[in-house]
Amino acid sequence: MIRVLLVDDQPLIRSGFRALLDLEDDIEVVAEAADGSEGLALAREHLPDIALIDIQMPVVDGIEATRRIAADPALAGVHVVILTNYGLDEYVFNALRAGAAGFLVKDIVPEDLLHAVRVAARGDALLAPSITRKLINRYVTQPLPTDTGMELKELTSREREAVALVAQGLSNHQIADRMVISPLTAKTHINRAMAKLQARDRAQLVVLAYESGLVAPRNS
User: Fold this and answer.
1) pLDDT per residue over 81-130, tens digit each?
2) Contact criterion met (CB below 8 Å) for 9 and 38
3) Beta-carbon count within 10 A of 75 CB
4) Dist. CA 54–CA 100, nearest whole Å
5) Which residues contact 11 (CB under 8 A, 6 or more apart)?
6) pLDDT average, residue stretch 149-156
7) Ordered DSSP codes for the chain
8) pLDDT at residue 161 above 60?
9) Which residue, 33, 112, 138, 141, is most buried by CB atoms nearer than 10 A?
10) How many whole angstroms separate alpha carbon 9 and alpha carbon 12?
11) Measured between alpha carbons, how far is residue 148 from residues 65, 112, 189, 197, 214 in Å?
């Protein structure tokens, strides 16, 4: 059973999402919150698999709530999915940097919402290659930090190659084709790199790849 926490200051949004999710045999909404502070408390109480969090809320917004969840070892199993009205804007970008596994636009069709919840519950990032490229394009306009504290030397050459390809927006199958390996091996390289770099998910791995200088921004 996939346990979901809904965090949104609009009751209508919460009730609509709950009605849809509760119809599924493998999904259960365990709690609802109207702001990030309440959502964080409920996350600690219920330990959901997925936290669907609105990005703009009173008291504690979605970015700060995501950051606090990502920083809490007791909530390591909680995958944050950001809800937004506007797509990949500056708020979403900052939420991904804070540790969100991906994002959904609130006008998503029901089938895509259900698919997204199941994908996030598996630990996969909700970033299609096209969205990853948008993330990269937005990120290359930001100044690169001089020191991220990441131990890149711990990565093998194949892991570094795989991470670089992830940061270019390639899927696991595309990475496998490029590296001439199986998709399972590609996924293994990526998962090991994530563990070594302490990246929560693929979305954060992309950001870390650029912050570390492993991949150089391209002007395009």
Assistant:
1) 988 887 666 777 788 778 888 888 888 889 888 988 998 888 766 665 55
2) no
3) 18
4) 12
5) 34
6) 71
7) -EEEEEE-S-HHHHHHHHHHHTTSTTEEEEEEESSHHHHHHHHHHH--SEEEEESS-SSS-HHHHHHHHHH-GGGTTPEEEEEESSSS-HHHHHHHHHT--EEEETT--HHHHHHHHHHHHTT--B--HHHHHHHHHHHTTSPPPS-----GGGS-HHHHHHHHHHHTT--HHHHHHHHTS-HHHHHHHHHHHHHHHT-SSHHHHHHHHHHHTSS-----
8) yes
9) 33
10) 9
11) 22, 35, 21, 11, 11
User: Comparing C-alpha atoms, which of 167, 152, 161, 28 is closest to residue 96?
Assistant: 167
- Whole-model pTM above 0.85? no
Please give the single-letter amino acid code of residue 145.
Answer: P
Q: How far apart are CA 98 and CA 122, in angstroms?
A: 20
Residue 32 CA, distance from chain mean position:
20
Q: Are 194 and 205 in contact (CB under 8 A)?
A: yes
What angle is formed at CA 119 by the lines to CA 71 and CA 67, rounded to 5 degrees?
15
At residue 134, the pLDDT reads 65
Taking alpha carbons only, the member of 191, 100, 108, 207 closest to residue 150 is 207
Q: 52 pairs with which residues across the strands?
A: 6, 81
Sign, Cα dihedral of 38, 39, 40, 42: positive
pLDDT at 220 (0 to 100) = 45
For residues 190 and 166, is the Cβ–Cβ distance under 8 A?
A: yes
Asked if 97 contacts 62 with a C-beta cutoff of 8 angstroms, the reply is no
